Amino acid sequence: MSRCAPHQAGFTTPEWLLGIGLIIMPVIVIVASIAPWYQRANMATLIAQETARVMVLADDWDSGEAEAHTLAREIAGNHGFTGSDWCASPAPGCLWMAIGGTSPGLIQRGSEISVQIEVPIPGVVVPGVGDVAAFQWSQAHTERVDDYRSIEVPGG
Predict the structure, then answer these.
(1) Mean pLDDT throughout 49-59?
(2) Of 56, 70, 85, 98, which is most buried by a Cβ count within 10 Å?
């Protein structure tokens, strides 16, 4: 009688569980993490664009800056952030916004106003570990003050 090779009848349960645990689950976790990243990046773009536009249309720098900060907080609030999530300087895990331009403090015809914002992007949530690889996303937008805009001249 000839010797036969050992009988192999397919996979076993441990191999199946190992395949799911090491291949399929990490892919699912990464794919599920993409939506919050995209949402926060879009929020940063929206805040930068809208606050720069508010500044360009403002009558003066101080009122424009106050209105821009109010709008930024409102947009961030609509995305689940609170007032305590904002920081005075860039730092990991918090929102930060800076308004500047070619002539900071003045809104003049033809000048440009820039807004830079940083938002925290959540990392991948690993069960039993928590967030891993969270990072900051930076977005900037520049608007030009209309060259033919009517601006009141003080005392004139």
Answers:
(1) 95
(2) 56
